Amino acid sequence: MRLPVLFLLFLTLTACNEAATERPASEIARHVAGGDPEIGRRILNDRDYGCGACHAIPGVRHARGSVGPPLHGMAVRGYVAGRLPNYPENLVNWIYDPQRIDPQSAMPNTGISREEATHVAAYLYTLQELPR
C-alpha cells in the first residue's frame, strides 16, 4: 500500500511542478514511463494487438471494448490490473506479459515487445481523467 501512495505523491508533485512550468501531460508521461506517448498512441491505433477489443481507451479509435476495464485515468489509479501498485515498471510488465504476473487473468499475451509496451504505458500515463 505504501508504494502506490508514494507513486501518487510523485505524480502529484510532478504535476504541481509541471503546472508551474506548463509542461503538457505527454512530457510528464515520457518522463515517468520512459517511453514516448505519441508512439504509444500510434501503436494502440495502428498495430493489431487487440487492446481496443477489450478496453475503452481515450484517444484510440475503435477502442470501445467492455471486456476489460476502461483505461481512463491510468495516470491517477492506485493499481494496475487491480493488484500491482501503479508504477511504470509494473504497467509495462503487465502490458508485456500479463500471464506471467497472473496466469488466471483474462488479459492475453498480445505479442507486444517490451519497447512497444513502454511506449504504450507512456501514452496511458497521459490519461489523467477518470470516467464520470
Strand order of the largest sheet: 1-2
| Rough outline | globular
Strand % is: under 5%
Distance between the termini: 25 Å
The total strand number stands at: 2
Q: Which series of helices and strands comes N to C? A: HHHHEEHHH
**Class based on secondary structure composition and strand pairing:** mainly alpha
| Unreliable stretches | 15-21
What radius of gyration results from the CA coordinates? 14 Å
Q: Work out the oligomeric state of the chains in this entry.
A: single chain
Helix content: 40-55%
Total helical segments = 7
Main beta sheet: 2 strands, antiparallel
Instruction: Quote the average pLDDT.
Output: 84
Short description:
The protein has 132 residues and is mainly alpha-helical. 51% of the residues lie in helices and 3% in strands.
Write a structural description.
The protein is mainly α and about 130 residues long. A two-stranded antiparallel ribbon has the order 1-2. It starts with a helix and ends in an 8-residue tail after the last helix. Helix content is about 50%, strand content about 5%. The chain is globular, with a radius of gyration of 14 Å.
